[in-house]
Write a structure and sequence with these properties.
Blueprint lengths: L1 H24 L1 E2 L9 H8 L3 E5 L6 E4 L4 E3 L3 E12 L7 E3 L5 E9 L11 E2 L5 E4 L2 E3 L2 E2 L6 E2 L5 E4 L2 E3 L2 E2 L6 E3 L3 E5 L2 E3 L2 E2 L6 E3 L3 E5 L2 E3 L2 E2 L7 E3 L3 E5 L2 E3 L2 E10 L2 E5 L2 E3 L2 E7 L2 E5 L2 E3 L9 E5 L4 E5 L2 E3 L4 E5 L3 E5 L2 E3 L3 E5 L2 E2 L4 E2 L19 E8 L6 E7 L54 E5 L11 E6 L3 E6 L8 E2 L2 E6 L6 E3 L3 E5 L9 E2 L3 E3 L9 E2 L6 E2 L28 H9 L19 H11 L26 H9 L23 H9 L22 H9 L16 H13 L4
Parallel strand pairs: 1-2, 2-5, 3-5, 4-6, 5-7, 6-8, 7-9, 7-10, 8-12, 9-13, 10-14, 11-15, 12-16, 13-17, 14-18, 15-19, 16-20, 17-21, 18-22, 19-23, 20-24, 21-25, 22-26, 24-27, 25-28, 26-29, 27-30, 28-31, 29-32, 30-33, 31-34, 32-35, 33-36, 34-37, 35-38, 36-39, 37-40, 38-41
Antiparallel strand pairs: 42-43, 44-45, 45-48, 46-47, 46-50, 49-52, 50-51, 53-54
Helix pairs in contact: 3-8, 4-5
C-alpha cells in the first residue's frame, strides 16, 4: 500500500516537473529586451505549442539570421509588442507538412522567400491563421510575396498586409486550394510582376468580408487586387480603391465570383473583367479610368456571364459596361455618366437606367437616356456593421427613388439599410434603382391651418359648411362638439360639412390635420357659430277654414335673439355642457379669459399658464406678495413677463422646475405646451398620497413615472374621450373640467 502511494507521488512530481519545463520552453525572454534573442526564439519554437514573449513592456524586434522551421502545430502570440524581422534575407517561417500554424498580435516584416514564394510564411497543407497582425515589406521571386499556401486553409482576421511584393504573381497570398477566409483586413501598397497584386487564386474557395484593398499594383498580367483563375470567390462589404494598372482589371475573374455590397472605385484600370460567372448585388463601380478603349467599369469576355442586381456603374472612362458574346443581365441597375455607358450585349431584366441610351433598354420600367441625378462619390457608414463603404447617393428628386421593379429584391442596400423604403415620402415603399436606398426625409414640421370662411351665424343649416386652408395634405381630426365625414385634407383650401348639429351655440369646435409623418397641426379653433331651429316660429293660424293662410315665421337673420354667454366669455354659450366647470375655474381665479373676452376652450395649455392655474387652484398665491425679490427664477423669465411672480412662487414651492437636459437645459420655456401627463402629475401630486402604478389607458406603459397618476384619472373617470396619448397637449376646456371634477370629489 505504501509502495503504491510512493509510486503515484513520484509520477505526479514527474508530471509537474515536465509541465513546468514545457511552459518555460514556450516563452521567449525572461522579462528584459536583452533576453529576447533569436536563440531564445529557436528554443521556444522547438517544441511547438504556444509561444509567447516576456520582453518587458516596450515594443521589441528580433532580427533573424536564418529561416525558422515549424515542424509541429504552433501558435505564436506577440502580445502586440513583438516584431520578427527577416533582415530582407531570410524567409521568416517555413511550415512543413500538415502542421497548423497561428500568428497573432505580431508584426512579421522584411522576409525574403526567394526560390519558392512566401516571404513571411510558406505553408504546407496545414491550416494557417493570422489574427490582429501586420505582415509588411516581405518579398519573393515566386508566387506569394507574403504567404505561400498550397491546399491548406487560411484564416485572416483584423490584420494588415502592406508593402509585400513578388516578381511573379500574388503580392500577398498564392492559393492553389483549400478554403481562404479573410475578415476585417486591409491590403495596402502590395505589388506583383505578373498579376494578382494581392491574391492569386488557382482553385479553392475564398470568402472576403469587411476588407479594404487600396494602392495595390501589378506591372503585368491581370488582377491588380484579385486574380481568380479558378475556384469560387465571395466578396462582401469590401472596398477596392486606388489600385493601379492602367489597362488591366482590378479584379480578374476566370472562376465564379460573387460580389455583394462592394465598392470598386477610383482605380486606374478596369474595375472588373470576367471570363467566368459573376454575380453583383448592391455594388458600386465608379470613377475607374483605363487607357485601354475597352476599360473603365466592367468588361465581359465572350465566355463570361455577369448578373447585376441594384448596381451603380457611373463616371467610368472610357466605358461603363462592355458585354461580350454571352450575356450581361441587369435589373434595377444604373449605368450612366460614363464616357460611353454600354457596348455589346446587354440584357435588361427591367427597372434599369442608362444615361446615353446606349444600353438597349426596352423593358416597361426601364429609363433610357435619363440623368440619374447622383451626388459625387462619398464615404458613408454601414448601417448594420462597423466600417464604411463608398457610394453615389441619389439627389432629391432623382428618378431612381421609389421606381425599381419588385422582383427578387435584396433585403438591404449597399450600406445595409433595409429595402424598400418610402424615399419620396408618398406613404408607399418601393425599392430604389441602384445600390443606394434613399430613406424618407424626416419631416418634423406640422401642417399650418388657417380659417378661410367661418360658418355663417346664425344659420338654419344643421350641417353647416366650413372652409379652412392647410399647407400640407393629411388626415382631418375633429374636436369639440363638431364632427364630419371628410377625413382627408389637401394642401390648399378644404371645404367640409359638419355632421348634423342641434340648435345651439358652438364655441368648442376644432380642426386638426396630421401629415404623413405623424406631425399634428395646432388645433384650429372654428369661430363660434349658432345653429337655430329652422322650424321655430312665433306666428300661428290667421282666419279660419280652408281659406286661411299661415303667418310666416320671423326672419331670424334680421332679428337675432340675444345669446347668453358662459362666465361672460364671448366664445362660450351659457348652454355649453361644460359651462359650470368653466365658471368654477373662473371663480377660484385659476382660469381667466383672454384680453379679447374669449376663453379659447381649444387652446392648449402653456407652461406659464399651468404655473398660475396650479397655484390659484390650491390658494397658494397672494397677489400682494413679491416672490421673486428682484431675481429671475430662470434665464428666460423676466420681471416684464405676466407670469413672473407665478413662476417664482411655483419654483419656490418646488411645484415647477426647468428643463434638465437637451437644448432647453436650465430654461423654463414658458410658451411650451404642457403634456397631459405633466398636468395630471402637477395637480395630483398636491392632492393625493403616493399613487400605485397599474393599468390605465389602452396601450399605456404600466411602470412609467406617470402611471400612478394615469391610473387615478382612469379609475375615477376624470378623462372623457378615447384613450389619450401621454404626450398630447391639454386644451383649456379639459383643464377646467378636470379641476371641477376634483372639486366635486372634494379633493379641491
Amino acid at each position: 500500500m505504501f509502495r503504491s502511494i510512493r509510486v503515484i507521488t513520484l509520477s505526479l512530481a514527474f508530471v509537474l516537473l515536465w509541465s513546468s519545463s514545457a511552459l518555460a520552453a514556450g516563452t521567449v525572454g525572461t522579462g528584459t529586451p536583452g533576453s529576447c534573442t533569436e536563440a531564445a526564439l529557436d528554443t521556444a519554437l522547438s517544441g511547438g505549442g504556444l509561444v509567447d514573449f516576456d520582453c518587458g513592456g516596450a515594443a521589441h524586434t528580433i532580427t533573424l539570421t536564418s529561416n525558422k522551421a515549424i515542424s509541429a502545430t504552433t501558435t505564436i502570440d506577440g502580445g502586440g509588442l513583438i516584431t520578427i524581422d527577416g533582415d530582407s534575407t531570410y524567409r521568416i517561417f517555413q511550415v512543413t507538412l500538415a502542421n497548423d500554424f497561428t500568428v497573432q498580435n505580431i508584426t512579421l516584416q522584411n522576409g525574403d522567400g526567394t526560390g519558392i514564394g512566401g516571404g513571411a510564411i510558406d505553408m504546407g497543407t496545414g491550416i494557417l491563421t493570422v489574427t490582429n497582425s501586420t505582415i509588411q515589406n516581405n518579398i519573393s521571386t515566386l508566387a506569394g510575396g507574403a504567404i505561400g499556401a498550397s491546399s491548406g486553409d487560411v484564416n485572416i482576421t483584423n490584420s494588415t498586409f502592406t508593402g509585400n511584393s513578388t516578381t511573379s504573381s500574388a503580392g500577398v497570398l498564392f492559393v492553389t486550394g483549400g478554403t481562404i477566409t479573410i475578415n476585417g483586413s486591409t491590403f495596402d501598397q502590395n505589388s506583383s510582376g505578373n498579376g494578382g497584386g494581392v491574391l492569386r487564386i488557382d482553385n479553392g474557395t475564398v470568402n472576403i468580408t469587411d476588407s479594404i484593398f487600396t494602392g495595390n499594383s501589378t506591372t503585368g498580367g491581370n488582377g491588380v487586387a484579385l486574380q481568380i483563375n479558378s475556384g469560387t470567390v465571395t466578396v462582401q462589404r469590401s472596398i477596392f480603391e486606388n489600385n493601379t494598372l492602367e489597362d488591366r482589371p482590378v479584379i480578374e475573374n476566370g472562376g465564379t465570383l460573387i460580389l455583394s455590397r462592394v465598392a470598386i472605385v477610383n482605380n486606374s484600370g478596369i474595375g472588373l473583367s470576367s471570363s467566368g460567372t459573376a454575380s453583383l448585388t448592391n455594388t458600386t463601380i465608379g470613377d475607374n479610368t483605363s487607357s485601354a478603349n475597352f476599360g473603365g467599369g466592367i468588361y465581359v469576355f465572350a465566355t463570361g456571364t455577369v448578373d447585376i442586381i441594384n448596381g451603380t456603374i457611373t463616371n467610368n472612362n472610357p466605358r461603363g459596361v462592355t458585354g461580350g458574346g454571352n450575356a450581361v443581365n441587369i435589373r434595377n441597375t444604373v449605368i450612366a455618366g460614363n464616357s460611353f455607358d454600354c457596348v455589346g450585349t446587354i440584357t435588361s431584366l427591367d427597372g434599369n437606367v442608362d444615361g446615353d441610351g446606349s444600353c438597349g433598354l426596352g423593358q416597361a420600367s426601364d429609363l433610357s437616356s435619363t440623368n440619374p441625378m447622383l451626388d459625387a462619390l462619398s464615404t458613408v457608414p454601414h448601417d448594420d456593421v462597423s466600417g464604411n463603404t463608398r457610394v453615389y447617393q441619389p439627389q432629391t428628386g432623382s428618378p431612381l427613388i421609389d421606381s425599381g421593379v419588385a422582383v427578387a429584391n435584396p433585403p438591404t442596400d449597399q450600406r445595409g439599410v433595409s429595402r424598400p423604403m418610402d424615399g419620396d415620402n408618398n406613404m408607399t415603399q418601393i425599392i430604389d434603382r441602384g445600390a443606394f436606398e434613399v430613406a424618407p426625409a424626416i419631416d418634423i414640421t406640422a401642417p399650418v391651418l388657417a380659417e378661410v370662411s367661418p360658418v355663417a351665424t346664425p344659420t338654419t343649416d344643421t350641417t353647416p359648411s366650413y372652409t379652412f386652408s392647410s399647407d400640407e395634405a393629411g388626415t382631418i381630426t375633429y374636436g369639440g362638439d363638431c364632427s364630419g365625414a371628410t377625413t382627408a385634407a389637401v394642401a390648399g383650401n378644404n371645404t367640409i360639412s359638419f355632421n348634423t348639429l342641434a340648435a345651439n351655440v358652438y364655441s368648442n369646435c376644432t380642426i386638426t390635420v396630421t401629415d404623413a409623418a405623424a406631425n399634428a397641426s395646432t388645433p384650429l379653433a372654428v369661430t363660434s357659430f349658432e345653429v337655430v331651429d329652422p322650424n321655430s316660429s312665433n306666428g300661428g293660424n290667421s282666419g279660419g277654414g280652408a281659406g286661411g293662410s299661415l303667418t310666416p315665421p320671423p326672419n331670424n337673420n334680421q332679428n337675432p335673439q340675444p345669446v347668453e354667454h358662459c362666465g361672460g366669455y364671448t366664445d362660450i354659450s351659457a348652454n355649453d355642457p361644460d359651462c359650470e366647470a368653466i365658471e368654477y375655474a373662473q371663480s377660484i381665479g385659476a382660469m381667466t379669459g383672454n384680453d379679447d373676452g374669449t376663453f379659447a376652450p381649444s387652446e392648449s395649455l402653456q407652461r406659464d399658464q399651468i404655473a398660475k392655474i396650479s397655484l390659484e387652484a390650491f390658494g397658494l398665491f397672494d397677489d400682494q406678495a413679491d416672490y421673486c425679490e428682484n431675481t429671475n427664477p430662470f434665464p428666460d423669465i423676466t420681471a416684464s413677463d405676466w407670469s413672473y411672480q407665478y413662476v417664482c412662487r411655483g419654483k419656490q414651492l418646488g411645484m415647477i422646475t426647468g428643463y434638465k437636459d437637451g437644448e432647453n437645459a436650465g430654461l423654463f420655456v414658458p410658451a411650451n405646451k404642457v403634456m397631459i401627463v405633466e398636468f395630471w402629475a402637477l395637480i395630483l401630486r398636491n392632492t393625493t398620497e403616493s399613487l400605485p402604478l397599474g393599468e390605465s389607458f389602452s396601450g399605456w406603459v404600466t411602470d412609467a413615472w406617470y402611471s400612478g397618476y394615469a391610473k387615478f384619472v382612469a379609475d375615477n373617470n376624470l378623462y372623457d374621450g378615447l384613450s389619450p396619448s401621454p404626450t398630447e397637449t391639454v386644451p383649456r376646456r379639459d383643464v377646467a373640467v378636470f379641476l371641477y371634477e376634483l372639486h366635486q370629489m372634494e379633493v379641491l
